[in-house]
Write a structure and sequence with these properties.
Blueprint lengths: L10 H32 L19 H35 L5 H38 L3
Length: 142
């Protein structure tokens, strides 16, 4: 039987293909892991500023109030993104601690909790202030 060059009838071809596929999977996993751990360094978590110039419920028009609602919704989306980002950062940071460094982990967790809770409290306060303006707008005589 004559085998032409370029044909892959050799038993080593199958083994080589499996090995290459296995190596590709390994490299893909390594790259994915590297991206996971370096992404927080590249994409820093940006703390969103609360919206400014929210409308006054006593004097604003319906269009101004709707614009305020959009600003609050955008702020809440940005804050959710920020909170997810700092949670991911925290997970990566905790993995870097030595297994027996419970005190360091506890201190890191306490700092994270303060940071997270402060962001949630500011978001809640901002939304509640705007909700008060909405209630005032709705209570105006028509």
């Amino acid at each position: 039987m004559i085998k032409l060059p370029g044909t892959h009838n050799h038993p080593w071809h199958y083994y080589g293909k499996r090995k290459i596929e296995s190596m590709n999977k390994t490299y893909k996993a390594l790259i994915a892991t590297a991206i996971l751990f370096t992404a927080p360094l590249v994409f820093a978590c940006d703390y969103p500023a609360p919206p400014r110039d929210l409308p006054d419920g006593a004097t604003s028009s319906i269009d101004e109030m709707k614009t305020g609602v959009k600003k609050i919704a955008e702020y809440q989306d940005q804050m959710s993104t920020y909170l997810s980002c700092i949670e991911a950062d925290e997970a990566v940071a905790l993995m870097e601690f030595e297994a027996d460094d419970e005190e360091g982990k506890a201190q890191r967790k306490a700092m994270f909790d303060k940071k997270y809770n402060a962001a949630v409290e500011e978001q809640t306060r901002t939304v509640e202030e705007f909700n008060a303006e909405i209630r005032e707008y709705k209570s105006r005589p028509k």
